Amino acid sequence: MAFTGAKLTTALAVAGVSVSLLATVARADEPASVDMPSADKPSPRAIDRSWLYLDDARVAEPAAVVGMTSVAYANVGSNPDPTSEPYRAFAANTAQPGALATLGAEVGVLPRVSLEALGQVQLGGEGPGVSPGAIAAARFELSPPSWRTVHVMASGGYLRETWSAPSPEGNTHALPAKDFGGADGAWASFAVAVDLQRLRLGLTTLGEHVFAPGRDGVDIMVQAGVSYRVVGCFRAGVEWVGQDLEETFDDAAEGGARQFVGPTAALQLLQDRLTLVAGPSVGLSSRSPNVLGRLAVAYGF
């Protein structure tokens, strides 16, 4: 099902209004100085989750809790029969057709060590139903506290795929359609962020293996972004996501690589305890959804 011009116009208009509202509120709440990081130790409940898709390269403080939720929409893409290949997904991504909601939390357990769990369910949308997914992770901040501008983090754990199975008539795989669906797996990720005064650069790489027949040995996802603190608590940036990059030159178990890119806007409020970030994105390949949108909220308890 193609994404109509009217839907595209509406989606972009809503995104534009959201960015404008975030910028207006940000100007009203601007602190005295934002060029350099504070020398004071931040509150344990202060968070920095200004990326929309990238993994944050810092972990929660011991005994602190970060609650996270997001709502995302992706159209089914330009493939004439979008159900002919499985829309596999890491539980926290948005490359599923229709609307998805994610809810989860991170809990600090030791200095520079935390545990995280996220679940994702379908709210509605196009194509076949999407089975719920989840991840559970241990997160380790590798960079020492003395590194004020460079942050490095590694994480890994269990996943249950968020999955949209192919239709029987469009199934081009050797496996029967009943064998497709959400499956268990393991994953590992590495994230780095660099703060250069107002400018932030980020990169996340992720590899996962799904314990199911007929699947790729390793699925690779890479996310890169740049974010700039425009005024006070308002940041604007651009993020790119590449999923199933191991299939860039050869469509295999997941039907080929998918990539998308788009602008983001982030608002950090309540002394950095609350972060709202949103943005639209466009697909860069024939297998990618034409248009995606996401709104994420994080709060430090």
Describe this protein's structure.
With 301 residues, the chain is mainly beta. It has a single domain (5-29, 49-300), classed as Porin (Beta Barrel), CATH 2.40.160. It has one helix at 5-28; strands at residues 65-74, 98-110, 113-124, 130-131, 133-141, 150-160, 163-164, 184-196, 199-210, 219-231, 234-243, 258-269, 274-283, 291-300. It has a twelve-stranded antiparallel barrel with strand order 1-2-3-5-6-8-9-10-11-12-13-14. A two-stranded antiparallel ribbon has the order 4-7. Strand 12 (258-269) and strand 13 (274-283) form a beta hairpin. The longest helix has 24 residues, at 5-28. It starts with a helix and ends with a strand. The model is unreliable at 1-15, 21-39, 78-94 and 167-178 (pLDDT under 50).
Identify low-pLDDT runs.
1-15, 21-39, 78-94, 167-178
- Percent strand equals over 45%
Helix and strand pattern = HEEEEEEEEEEEEEE
Class by SSE composition: mainly beta
Characterize the overall form. Answer: globular
CATH superfamily: monomeric porin ompg
Distance between the termini: 42 Å
The strand count comes to 14
Mean pLDDT equals: 77
What is the rounded Rg? 19 Å
Major sheet details? 12 strands, antiparallel, barrel
Widest sheet: strand order?
Answer: 1-2-3-5-6-8-9-10-11-12-13-14
* Count of distinct structural domains: 1
Topology of helices and strands:
Layout: H1 5-28, E1 65-74, E2 98-110, E3 113-124, E4 130-131, E5 133-141, E6 150-160, E7 163-164, E8 184-196, E9 199-210, E10 219-231, E11 234-243, E12 258-269, E13 274-283, E14 291-300
Antiparallel strand pairs: 1-2, 1-14, 2-3, 3-5, 4-7, 5-6, 6-8, 8-9, 9-10, 10-11, 11-12, 12-13, 13-14
